[in-house]
Amino acid sequence: MSDEEWQAFLRDSELGDASAPKEPSARARMVTERLRHQEQPEGWRTGPTPRDMNNRTRRRRQAWSVLGVALALGVVTVALRPSLLPGDPLGAGEPKTAAVTPLPAETVAPTAAPGAVPDQVPTIDRPFAGSPALAWADGEAGVVLPAARAVGSASQERVSKALQLTRELLVGANLDPKTLRGERPAAALAVLDPKQPGLLDDIDAFLRSPDRTHDPLTLFSRFDPNEARVVGDVVKTRGRMTYKKARYDGVTVHADYTFVYPVRPAEGPPEVTRTIVRRVVDLELPDPAHYDVTPGRLLLIRYDEELFNSACDVHDGFLHPQFRSAGPTGPPQTGPTEDPYDRSEGVGEGRAFDSCGTASRL
After folding, report:
1. H-type helices in the chain, by residue range?
2. pLDDT the model gives residue 335
3. How far is it between the farthest Cα atoms of the chain?
4. CA atoms of 59 and 15, how far apart (whole Å)
5. End-to-end distance of the chain based on CA atoms, in angstroms?
6. How far is it, in rounded angstroms, from Cα 276 to Cα 131?
7. What is the dihedral of CA 315, 319, 324, 329, to 10 degrees?
8. CA–CA separation, 228 vs 264, rounded Å?
9. Tally of CA atoms within 13 A in the half-sphere of 330 that contains its CB
């Protein structure tokens, strides 16, 4: 059998259509044995020799082994952080906020600051992420009135009226969108007694020409609309209101509330930060039958405030939040570090007047 016939037989055998070969002749056996011991050169059809195939196969297995580990690690990584997939096909680009149980209304002074919460960066869609205020009430819902009862000569109706007016003042001064945009806080001013000597004139002067010692921020939360704007329509609110018999046949209301404002720059990237304001005010509703006062209007007895994340060296009547992208500005902070969410201590305790401290968190 010639070499060509033998190769044809082998091909037919692989295809399954070859008939059984005849017993090769002695010459054919000699040729086959001689070819078996010869080292055949690599041809353009034959491909690499078995030695090179083994080496290449080994390298390929090593490559697939490493790739397999990488793929396995990739699967685990994507399982833990599916947002890494291009386009976020699983819809997990933003960390999900666990359901938060709203806190009950504050009826007594807290004994400690709120506990730590997961550190998350606020966004336009989630402006209270990473803040204890996430569990606080929204806006006016956080100004909860205590049950009214008569005190001294003040009837239950008078006490109820004083509480309602105090609520109107807090809402108008700290939650009214017009006030927050820097407009005149007309709703809040309408609650105050124009007969109180110098009060409204002083407030008008504060609004018209603010400075370090005549600042409307002592009473009102205001942002410069050309610089910063409140995100969305929710301001988080927490506090409490109490009352007692007044010295002059009326009722005195004590209000202590903290307001958390999510804000963004008026122009530029959609970065979100928070400015936090705590206010303590004492207001009195005297008996107009005994005193020269305007019926249904409040006297402002005391007002204190604490501002967090607002420029300390600017006194133009607006809150000036500091954004991360802007970097530090103004003089270095010299006051103590305080937790703006800590309502367990009085306003201004342990710090000098007009000190400029640092918020431990926002």
Report:
1. 3-15, 26-37, 50-80, 156-174, 177-180, 186-189, 199-208
2. 74
3. 142
4. 31
5. 93
6. 11
7. 0
8. 6
9. 16
Integer Cα distance of 331 and 311 in angstroms? 9
166: closest CA among 148, 188, 182? 188
Side-chain half-sphere exposure of 34, counting CA atoms within 13 A: 7
Q: Mark the ranges of the chain whose per-residue pLDDT is less than 50.
A: 16-24, 26-28, 30-95
**At residue 205, what is the residue type?**
A
Cα distance between residue 318 and residue 316, in whole Å: 6
Q: Are strands 299-308 and 228-230 parallel, antiparallel or unpaired?
A: unpaired
- The pLDDT assigned to 292 comes to 93
Residue 293 CB coordination number (10 Å): 21
pLDDT the model gives residue 197: 95
Token pair belonging to 59: 């390298």
Chain centre distance of CA 197: 44
Give SS3 for 55.
helix
Q: Which residue has the tokens 């109107």?
A: 168
Choose among 228, 271, 199, 242: nearest CA to 107: 242
Position 211: which residue type?
A: D
